[in-house]
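$ ./design --mode recover --in tokens.txt
reading tokens...
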């Protein structure tokens, strides 16, 4: 396991916790970020983390591997009853309600504690700023993704299905050193590329057809995200050529906005969206310009017109403008970007 400063992460968050209160974290990625504990079965409860301003207790499934940190107390049980046993004599508990099941929430409500919703903003501010180890892992995941995607695009052939390409790409990511895929790989041929989150089908590749692939490697839990759109054939549709150029221009404008003094999520989105809107395709740019990523494929900040979050040094975001023409094709170009601002 990569050596992270888990003790520093925990003590930083503890400074935001009011004395005499406790916080219950249940989101697996929050817990992994703070403790290194990896939940292996999505959808199953494998850990809780109880924190006060001067203590941290990880309650975990006894059958799961755990690498212990000096600042954390470990309890090989994972239930709300075990959580209530370990909470110090306090009256206030702020819980990560979005990550709890209804049954877990009801069990906590039956206790004598005053239950409130925990505000995760302080932790997200920590998670958005990546340390050197995180940046190295993300950069490695990006490198693997880029190399494999270039290889896959170079081997496209008539008769391949979207499923065929997806299976081959996912296998090549693993062979190149990835631990897995960061998200379900998107492969879209022809009109399917007009749906941003299309999932592969048995549609076969034909000459003179748009191909959109959105994929990412995962390395030690950290994600990459990359999209390429190409025309498979020698005679691209003139409108494909047009919107492809607009999308790349929008991407460049967003990159310039990122390098300005005190860029915000909004300013980057505005830069890309203005290019596409002025070209007459504003209604066909149907998602945000990008998002943060790290242990989760979608993290704050969302690059949207409503988000004034400053983009600071060591934040990692995607920039991914797109234009989608229903019934014809779509074009998206996406890169994972590390902010080098000071």
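writing sequence...
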């Amino acid at each position: 396991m990569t050596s992270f400063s888990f003790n520093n992460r925990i003590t930083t968050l503890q400074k935001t916790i009011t004395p005499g209160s406790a916080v219950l974290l249940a989101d697996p990625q929050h817990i992994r970020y703070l403790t290194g504990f990896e939940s292996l079965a999505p959808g199953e409860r494998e850990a809780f983390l109880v924190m006060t301003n001067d203590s941290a207790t990880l309650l975990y499934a006894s059958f799961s591997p755990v690498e212990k940190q000096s600042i954390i107390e470990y309890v090989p049980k994972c239930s709300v009853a075990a959580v209530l046993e370990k909470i110090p004599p306090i009256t206030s508990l702020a819980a990560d309600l979005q990550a709890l099941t209804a049954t877990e929430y009801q069990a906590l409500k039956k206790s004598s504690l005053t239950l409130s919703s925990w505000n995760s903003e302080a932790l997200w501010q920590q998670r958005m700023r990546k340390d050197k180890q995180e940046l190295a892992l993300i950069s490695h995941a990006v490198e693997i993704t880029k190399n494999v995607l270039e290889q896959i695009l170079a081997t496209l052939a008539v008769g391949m299905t979207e499923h065929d390409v997806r299976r081959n790409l996912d296998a090549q990511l693993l062979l190149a050193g990835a631990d897995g895929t960061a998200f379900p790989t998107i492969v879209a041929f022809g009109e399917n590329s007009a749906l941003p989150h299309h999932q592969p089908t048995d549609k076969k590749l034909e000459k003179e057809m748009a191909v959109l692939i959105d994929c990412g490697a995962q390395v030690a839990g950290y994600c990459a995200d990359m999209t390429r759109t190409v025309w498979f054939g020698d005679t691209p549709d003139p409108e494909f050529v047009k919107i492809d150029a607009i999308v790349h221009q929008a991407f460049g404008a967003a990159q310039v906005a990122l390098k300005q003094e005190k860029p915000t999520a909004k300013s980057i989105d505005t830069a890309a969206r203005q290019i596409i809107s002025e070209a007459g395709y504003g209604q066909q740019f149907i998602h945000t310009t990008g998002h943060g990523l790290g242990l989760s494929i979608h993290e704050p900040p969302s690059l949207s017109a409503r988000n004034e979050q400053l983009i600071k040094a060591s934040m990692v975001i995607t920039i991914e403008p797109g234009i989608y023409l229903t019934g014809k094709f779509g074009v998206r170009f996406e890169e994972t970007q590390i902010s080098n601002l000071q």
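exit 0
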